[in-house]
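Usage

Read records sequentially. Each one opens with the input sequence:
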Amino acid sequence: MNKTYWVIIVSIAVFGQLSFVSKNDYSPMRICVKGKILNLKTATPLKKTNVYIYSKQMDEIDFNPEIGLIDFGKTDNKGEFLIDTHIDKSNLQFWIKINEFAQLNVCVPKIDTSKLSDTIHLGTIYFVPYQNELEVESYNMPKSKPIREKEIYEKYSIAQVDSIFNLTGSNYGMILNPVDTVDGSITRYNFGPNKARGTKIKKYKQITFKMTIN
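and closes with the structure output:
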């Protein structure tokens, strides 16, 4: 057997061992997540709305619920939902996402992991509609008139959300995480010979929340 075959065999063995360890590290527990969701802006229930649950933070800029292993359910006419899913016993948290709303990180540090399953009651939770803020850095670009965007009254700005959740007694049972900055795109512009190329760098600011269930 030549050296190439030995390399293939060893590679398969190492990959199989890593997969086995990774599988053993993951210890799932069945949970039922239930609660009632209100729109914080309007104080009304989110009716017949898809609710997605995942083990890690989801992509808010290009949210695609079909990518990744996501459990989901739908609220009823009262904004109530019940989703059957799993939680990793070594990582007692999960993320809830509703399209066009800030996502929520739910931590359950005191859940009894000796059980085969459990129900997590979130109670009434408020989802925050907000507008991702676009930041644009421009280099060697010609000056242009600023574009006025139509104000979106159905949503909060990040500054408004920050103001609401820094008021005493107005945290709605959850805390605002530090604002994230997500890289968007880099675009190069060619303005002709003997002219410097222009560059635009787009970044987005987005917010998330955290709730701890004891």
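Summary fields computed downstream for this record:
- The longest helix spans residues 3-25.
- The helical segments are 3-25, 158-164.
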